[in-house]
């Protein structure tokens, strides 16, 4: 079975490296983008199985990236998991209207929980993550 391809769009380099290592340890093929423009480009060209997207990003914010993905044929149906500390309800609601598969608040989850959530989403399992 081929490895699932993940795109992690996160501007915090330390966090990105940590998540990248954790995902690779779990057997995922991971690509990282550190800003919204690069994230959108890699989403379109790389055709990931899932995008883990931060909202607060340089060059193009996560909501704009998500809107562009939804208006592009190659990424129209790509699942997007929001992993952010940005918790403004209207923006989060907008992302769910666009079809976000879930939303995790960085400060409330462990890396292990994020990897578990990604694994469940790729298997089509919805619901809360375990502690």
From TrEMBL:
Residue span(s) of domain Response regulatory: 5-121
Pfam families for the chain: Response_reg
Record's keyword annotation contains Cell cycle: no
UniProt-recorded Gene Ontology molecular function terms: DNA binding
GO biological process: phosphorelay signal transduction system
Keyword list, A-Z: DNA-binding, Phosphoprotein, Transcription, Transcription regulation, Two-component regulatory system
InterPro entries from the UniProt entry: Bact_response_regulator, CheY-like_superfamily, Sig_transdc_resp-reg_receiver
Domain of life: Bacteria
PTM annotation (4-aspartylphosphate): residues: 54
PANTHER family: RESPONSE REGULATORY DOMAIN-CONTAINING PROTEIN (PTHR44591:SF3), STRESS RESPONSE REGULATOR PROTEIN 1 (PTHR44591)
Name recorded for this polypeptide: Alkaline phosphatase synthesis transcriptional regulatory protein phoP, two-component system, OmpR family, alkaline phosphatase synthesis response regulator PhoP
Record organism: Berkelbacteria bacterium GW2011_GWE1_39_12
